[in-house]
Design brief:
Helix content is about 35%, strand content about 25%. With about 250 residues, the chain is an alpha+beta fold. The radius of gyration is 23 Å and the shape is elongated. It folds into 2 domains: about 100 residues, AhpD-like, CATH 1.20.1290; about 120 residues, Jelly Rolls (Sandwich), CATH 2.60.120.
């Protein structure tokens, strides 16, 4: 599954001054056009660089898109050939200007992005630290990042592909339970005796107290959800058996 392109620069820089422009930039241009699947992201990066070059744009926006092209697999040899070819059609001075920026981008010693780094770039909330305190109740690697520790406890829980927690129950004398809100990737939630529910960004799951369940990533995708604890009396968690491979593998 292709990583979703997410952009917040419009709202960060112009959200209050020009909210419509911010919406068009973040939600339409990047949220819809960049995520349209007929053309792959690498090709879109190349088209964008050439379009800006043809328009004579050589400011920070072009450098951003050159960096984006590099991130999505355009090599130094490829960008040199792309700029050279485009120069024949859009003009020699433009070629020189773009080469100056391209040399900066492709010559910098940038660390190689890991799968975790690339996934972090697609979600708003931090992945956080390895969830070592609860590792015994998970198959695979999970991560935990506190979002709010006051009033209502909220945590972002991230699962590597194939990671899931054990069956468990949130006990409470009154109230209690948990709410899950998917904020990235793809995963599943399942209650005992019921079919699993696929979770994608925006999916909300309400888990009553005393319901046996598990949740975790799809076999081929990272997955993140906000975990919101519902207030109750005499609350506790009971961790149970692991979700066996035979059952989990049926999901794919």
């Amino acid at each position: 599954m292709a990583e979703k392109i997410v952009q917040t620069a419009g709202r960060n820089q112009l959200g209050e001054f020009a909210p419509m422009f911010a919406h068009l930039n973040d939600d339409v241009l990047f949220g819809e056009v960049w995520n349209e699947e007929v053309i792959d992201v690498k090709t879109k990066c190349i088209i964008t660089v050439v379009s800006l070059m043809a328009s004579g744009i050589t400011d920070s926006s072009l450098k951003y898109h050159l960096q984006n092209a590099k991130t999505h697999g355009v090599t130094k040899e490829e960008i040199a050939a792309i700029i050279t070819h485009a120069t024949m059609y859009v003009g020699w001075p433009k070629g020189w200007a773009v080469f100056r920026l391209a040399k900066e981008v492709w010559n910098e010693e940038a660390p190689v992005l890991t799968d975790k780094d690339r996934y972090q770039n697609t979600i708003f909330f931090p992945i956080g630290a390895p969830n070592d305190a609860y590792a015994q109740y998970f198959i695979g690697q999970s991560y935990l990042a506190p979002v709010s520790t006051e009033q209502v406890p909220v945590f972002n829980v991230t699962f590597e592909p194939g990671c899931r927690n054990n069956w468990h129950i949130h006990h409470a004398k009154n109230g209690g339970g948990q709410m899950l809100i998917c904020v990235g990737g793809r995963g599943y939630y399942q209650e005992w005796g019921k079919e699993p529910i696929e979770m994608t960004p925006g999916t909300v799951i309400n888990i009553p107290a005393e319901v046996k369940h598990w949740h975790g990533a799809a076999p081929d995708s990272w997955f993140s959800h906000l975990a919101i604890e519902v207030a109750g009396e005499e609350t506790s968690n009971e961790w149970l058996e692991a979700v066996l491979d035979e059952e989990y593998n049926k999901l794919s």
